Amino acid sequence: MLTMLAKLLKALNSESAPWQIALAFSLALIVALTPTLSLHNAIVLLFAFLLRINLSAFFLGVGAFSLLAVAIDPYSVRLGESLLANPGLQSTWTELYQSDFWRMTAFNHSLVLGGLLIALVAFIPLFIASRVLISLYRDRLLAWANKLKIAQILKGTKFYNLYKSIAE
What we know:
By secondary structure, the protein is mainly alpha-helical. Helix content is 82%, strand content 0%. α1 crosses α9 and α2 packs across α4.
C-alpha cells in the first residue's frame, strides 16, 4: 500500500500530464460504484491497461471510491429500481434482456444499473475537478509544502526514502 501511495505521489509530482491521473480517478469511479464482476468493469479495466493512465492512481481510486460506494449503494439501488420499474421502459428492458449480450451486462440488476448511471453522470465532473486540483496542487501547494518544517522532517523518514527510490 505504501508503494502504491509513493507511486501516486511520484505521479502527482512528476511531469506527467494531469489528464492521465484524472482519467485514472474517473475510470476508478466506474469500477468502484458497480459490482466487481460486471462486463462493463472488464471493459473499463481493458481501457485502464491500454490507455496511458497512472495505474497506481487507478487502483487507489478504486479503493477510495469503494468506501464511497458503501454509502451511496442504497441510492444506486433505488435509482436502478426506479428505472427498471418504469412502465415506459418495460418494453425496452424486456427486449434488451432477450439478447445474450445485454443479459451479460447484468443491467437487469438494480445496483449495476443505478451505480453505472451515477458513475457515468459523475465521470466528466470528476475528470475536470481532479484535473484542476492536480494542476493547482502542482502550481501552488507543492512549492509551499516543501518549505514547511514538517516536510523537511518527513524527508528523513522511511516513506520518503521509498518515494525517492521509486522516483529515481
